[in-house]
Amino acid sequence: VRDRTRYSALVPINRCYSSVGRIITGKSLCYLMIYAVMSTYLVVVVPKMFSFLHMATWQNLLLLMIPFLLACVFFAQTISCLVHYRENVILLMVFVSLPLLFMSGVSWPQSSIPSYWQGVSWLFPSTFGIRAYIRLNSMGATIADVSHELICQWTLAAFYFTMACIVYGVEMRLSKQHAQERLEVLRKKREVRLQFKGKKKVSEA
After folding, report:
1. Any alpha helices (H) in the chain, and if so which ranges?
2. Sequential DSSP letters for 156-184
3. Which of 13, 32, 33, 124 has the fewest CB atoms inside 10 Å of its own CB, making it the most exposed?
4. Which residues, at least 6 apart from 11, have a Cβ–Cβ distance to it below 8 Å?
């Protein structure tokens, strides 16, 4: 946990990692396993429980959820450099969830949203994910009809994967720097201790 490390490092200094790709891949697979279960419950089980309109096939939902979850996971890893305490995640979600819902064009007409806010909404995977899901599940669209949203999702996934690699690369360098600084401090303390013991032996002799 980041708030338990010595320097609030995203990559702990007590671990030795050979590459950024291994960190990103390992954490992403862990998150995907968790959120694959949650997304299945939300988009398949809940609509059937309450007899909601459900027109999308499981194949189309799978093609939609894979890039959406990947984009969300890589996006979360990218902004994790800004979150130093776990409580801040809840505050961040409360602050941005409602604006993102409005900017998606579902609860508010997309034509009434200013163009600059629409541009901002393109940075978030939820925008294209919500639009594609509504069209597939409520409007009877085919997977070809939401190809634009799928392309945008894969583009965001690739973009945030690259950004996550950059962020974790910087964090790894900072962790190594902190480790070297800590090692230098310990070496100086050891040298001072040895000098003190040497002087004490000379004075006793």
Report:
1. 20-40, 46-49, 58-79, 86-103, 115-121, 125-138, 147-204
2. HHHHHHHHHHHHHHHHHHHHHHHHHHHHH
3. 33
4. 17, 23, 168, 171, 172, 175
141-149 contacts at long range (C-beta below 8 A, 24 or more positions apart): 142/60, 143/59, 143/60, 143/63, 143/64, 146/64, 149/64
pTM equals 0.77
- For helices 20-40 and 147-204, give the axis angle rounded to 10 degrees: 130
Nearest of 152, 161, 181 to residue 64 by alpha carbon: 152
**What's CA 145's distance to the chain center, in Å?**
28
Residue 140 zone, left/alpha/beta (φ > 0; ψ -120 to 50; rest)? left
> Which amino acid, 58?
W
**Rg, C-alpha atoms of the chain:** 24
Q: Degrees (nearest 5) of the Cα angle 167, 170, 183?
A: 140
pLDDT tens for the chain, 205 residues long, are: 455 555 455 665 555 556 777 888 888 999 999 999 998 898 888 888 888 888 888 888 999 999 999 999 999 888 887 777 777 777 888 888 888 888 888 877 777 888 888 888 889 999 999 889 988 888 888 888 999 999 999 999 999 999 998 888 887 777 777 667 777 777 877 777 777 666 666 566 5
Cβ atoms of 123 and 109 within 8 Å: the answer is no
